[in-house]
Amino acid sequence: MQKRNKYIPSFFIVGLALWASACAIPQLATKEVSTEIPTQFAAAAPDTANAAQINWRDFFDDPYLPGLIDTALSNNQELNIVLQRISVVQNEIQARKGEYLPFVNGGIGSDVEKVGRYTRNGAVEESLNITDDKAFPELLGNLQLGLTASWEVDIWHKLRNSQKIASMEYLASVEGKNFLLTNLVAEVANSYYELIALDNQLLNLEENIQIQKDALNVVKLLQQAGRTNSLAVQRFEAEVKKNQSEIFTIRQEITVTENRINFLLGRAPQPIRRNASGFIEFKPQVVSTGVPAQLLENRPDIRKAELELAASELNIQVARANFYPSLDVKAGLGFQAFNPKFLLSTPESVAFSLAGDALAPLVNRNAIIATYKNASAKQIEAAYEYEQVVLKAYFEVANQLSNMDNLEQNFQLKTQQVEALNRSIEIANQLFQSARADYMEVLLTQRDALEAKMELIETQKAQLIAMVDLYKALGGGWR
Fold it and tell me: What is the spatial distance between Cα 466 and Cα 472, in angstroms, rounded to a whole number?
């Protein structure tokens, strides 16, 4: 016996060595994020006032647009789908929270068994020396009634960190929903302004057609008086027909835009209530941009990327915990007997058990190492994505600031161009009637005036869309 006992310390030493080797963790790289952005926007005066803090109901100065946005936020199918996905992620928090709490099960079971004579249990039965009147039953029953419990002791905070990860993923999904809200508000607003611009283009085209019809009547009278020929009449008629055909193109664009808005609103096709009057005179509001650092707070996509980065860092800790020993505790308490009439006998049928296991991976840790490497790679990926989102947000604001400034200059010059061409139409008509100008000069002047007015409307639409896009780029629209 003494000879055998001297090997016991050796077994303990070998076991501890193997356990220590199991806990050896490979060193992997992670990435610290760098968010170096300018302290202010180049095209904006330094100011902490920020339009992103303004509720979208107060931002849009229109009698109909807020109602359309409100309907979209209630009925939009994509938004409602995202809300259900958020609910699924929220349930994951509850599931992971329960993983680091003890599991307790209650149940009842029964089985019957006949052991072979030359098995261990069979040999035990033979050695009991049971008399003929007290023979060991050939079929031995077993009834159980009680509770069983199991608990993985969260020594390394693996399960607790998993729950934190689920919480961060939930918060990230909420920020994803907020980012969708921002885009949805902007998309409805941009489509609404596009629809109003199309209304103004249609009205401008109809007014221009009327001017051309009046000019056509004058040309016909001049032809009857012998002061011009049929070629001039045919060219004026062709110009009228060309513009009349454009009406149907614009009407089709109006239908498509209305349907797009109805789709965003999650409802069947129907006319969109709007106010198209005073479109050219409407001045886009000045959007306060604040400072670039406020983007980190106001942009939902940045906050989403930040939460995903934090979750990826915690996921490395969870993956690292797989290298450490796990401690499982199991216990049972209840009644057990081979005959139902003895099942609830106390204390003879009372049975209990308590066991603990400490296990660590020793051989073939490839899956654990791969999971750990994946966690490290995903953390680096999340860090780059966070940096990319921050840079993208800054450039989006900077581009829209420059865009609004250039569009304002463009609009002023376009307005002057339209005014000059409107005056030139009157002059060209007078010169043509007095035979001091060719009919082609009248046609070209009318055509230039029409195109310039169309471009002016497009520029005004671009200004309003740039205003909305700047509001979105700052992180406005989800509050």
Answer: 10
